[in-house]
Amino acid sequence: MLELQNISKYYGARQALDRVSLTLENGIYGLLGPNGAGKSTLMNIITGNLKPTSGIVLWDGKDTRDMGADYRSLLGYAPQQQGLYDTFTGIRFLSYMATLKGIPKNEQKSEIRRVLDDVNLTEKAYRPIGTYSGGMKQRLGIAQTLLGNPKILILDEPTAGLDPKERVRFRNIIAEFAKEKIVILSTHIVSDIEYISDYTLLMKNGRLILTGKTQDLALSLEGKVWKIQIPEKQLEQVNDRYTVVNIHREEAGMIDVRVVSAKKPSVDAIM
């Protein structure tokens, strides 16, 4: 069980997280919110890449700061900007990552074979990463998170830039290997959450403002989620006034925004 107790984080005078408390057990958690809501900061604190200004992260009741490598071995993390080497083959990249994770040499071959099979990349393993499609690169990023069979998977905007077909394939992969693990899937794409997450965590301005079973939250928000189109320069104003759950950039500086509101937020808003 993973517990976050009163996590706050400041960057100078700016507060990125405000007393976030959360208890996570096995299942898929959709971490939803607009850019700047605090999702990436929260995930970096869970992984230990950032220290909170205050608060504590516990694994099975133990302070993760005292666990060192034992805690790191439980983690699989795919950041939004995955560092991939275009000249490496897929298998060379995974061998490199397996070594960094401390997987013994005599176990690496079978472990790499397993994760390649999990993400359906076995036949492409010896191709240079530079020849991979966007979807294949995302799957390779997921494969490296699975090395060592971690108990906690953290995926930051994993479907960003994927076409609809690749997005569906990615969701299926996540759902397949999520058994017996805690999976935190951070995104601003509502459909990613709706289709695969067991629980939804909605963030705004560094706070968790809604948590619960995805199905229950979907019912509670029925008839309250609107889509509006606005100039990009108005996004901050809209974010201050409403809970923004999805953003899609269009051409000519316009963006489609999905917001939660009990009343119609503008005359041209649609459900």
Quick description:
The protein is of the alpha/beta class and 271 residues long. It has helices spanning 39-47, 69-72, 90-100, 105-118, 134-146, 164-177, 190-196, 214-220, 235-241; strands at 2-11, 14-24, 27-32, 54-59, 62-63, 75-78, 152-156, 182-187, 199-204, 207-213, 225-231, 243-249, 254-260.
Outline the structure in words.
The protein is of the alpha/beta class and 271 residues long. It has 2 domains: 2-222, P-loop containing nucleotide triphosphate hydrolases (Rossmann fold, 3-Layer(aba) Sandwich); 223-271. The protein is 32% helix and 31% strand. It has 9 helices and 13 strands. It has helices at residues 39-47, 69-72, 90-100, 105-118, 134-146, 164-177, 190-196, 214-220, 235-241; strands spanning 2-11, 14-24, 27-32, 54-59, 62-63, 75-78, 152-156, 182-187, 199-204, 207-213, 225-231, 243-249, 254-260. The strands form 3 sheets. It has a 6-stranded mixed β-sheet with strand order 6-7-8-3-9-10, with helices on both faces. A 4-stranded antiparallel β-sheet has the order 2-1-4-5, covered by helices on one side. Helix 3 (90-100) crosses helix 4 and helix 4 (105-118) crosses helix 5 (134-146). The mean pLDDT is 86.
Give the biggest beta sheet. Answer: 6 strands, mixed
**CATH architectural category of the largest domain:** 3-Layer(aba) Sandwich
The coarse overall form would be: globular
Q: How would you classify the quaternary structure? A: single chain
Structural class: alpha/beta
Predict the CATH topology of the largest domain.
Rossmann fold
- Secondary-structure element sequence? EEEHEEHEHHHEHEHEEHEHEE
| CATH class value of the largest domain | Alpha Beta
Mean pLDDT: 86
